[in-house]
Amino acid sequence: MIFGDIYNDVVSSFGSLWSYKERGDSLEIITPFATTSSKFVSVFITKRGDEFIVSDGGLIADGGYNNTFNRDLDCYDKAFLHYTESFQVKETYGINGVPFFYKKTSKQLSVASIILDMANYISSLVSLSGVEYEVDRKPYDLFSKTANDYLSTLFIGRFDSRSFFDKTTQHVKPNAIISMENGSVILLNYVTGTNRFNFQNSIYKAAGIFELADKSLPTLRDKIENKITLIDDLATGYKTDMNYAIEKLTDKPKLKRVDWSKKEELNELLEK
User: Which residues fall within 8 angstroms of residue 121, CB to CB, at 6 or more apart?
Assistant: First the structure.
């Protein structure tokens, strides 16, 4: 096992809730640190010359935690700089231009401590990106109300608000649930935002909720007929080049996208 001594140092120092995957000349360590997007943080160890490098593997900037990363948003950038300076993290760029964040040391005994620092750093930055900033809350609430009003009219007596899930799955909170005549349900999540950052964050949040639904109790999961994302393509934050991110919401069975400008497509559900 590559870097086996370092991994053993981590486990002996911080407990057994850690795991690993070997990736060529690197070792991925899956930490027990979680993000608010319900992902466990990973760090990657490599060695260049006499130095051990512990990085995020580019996952922060690449949305690997169902997160967004946009330093153009002033309030986020200030927090980003604060954490980066506090943890003394450095930045470099991969071949594809994606930023990598890392710390390094020439002392093997210091690597475990650096791993802990990076895990805290990654968890903080990713969770911070999930904050719904007040400037964007009102437009989101307005779109949610408009969509709810439309759906409750379209699906009279079949539109619900999250009561499908029991106490063991309260972390699964779709925006809306439609009960079908055959006993199955359709989950809906809304995606909107007044700028690119908040719109992308809304995309990843919806993807995370659907992923959690797939991991719910089988008795509940098997009742899910479809998972639909209602995209506010009329929002100022929507850009056509975001379709690569929206693909996360359509790349698995039972996942479907409906644009708000074509919301009449939802009428097809009434025929089932």
Answer: 56, 83, 84, 87, 89, 101
* Torsion (CA) 16, 61, 101, 111 in degrees, nearest 10: 10
Domain 4-129 class, CATH top level: alpha beta
**How many beta carbons lie within 10 A of that of residue 102, not counting itself?**
18
CA–CA dist 104, 134 (Å, integer): 37
* Architecture label for domain 134-271: 3-Layer(aba) Sandwich (3.40)
pTM value > 0.70 = no
* Helices and strands (DSSP H and E) totals, the chain: 7, 11
Closest C-alpha among 112, 92, 113, 114 to residue 103: 114
Beta bridge partners of 159: 178
Helix (H) or strand (E) holding 91: strand 90-93
22 vs 45: CA distance, rounded Å: 10
From CA 47, how far away is CA 261, in angstroms rounded? Answer: 51
**Residue among 196, 59, 224, 63 at smallest CA distance from 136:** 196
- Cα 176 to the chain's mean position, in Å? 19
Q: Name the phi and psi angles at 174, rounded to 5.
A: -70, 165
Are 258 and 266 in contact by the 8 Å Cβ rule? The answer is yes
CA distance 115 to 117: 5
Domain boundaries, the chain: 4-129, 134-271
Summarised one tens digit per residue, pLDDT across range 92-121 is: 998 888 899 999 999 999 999 999 999 999
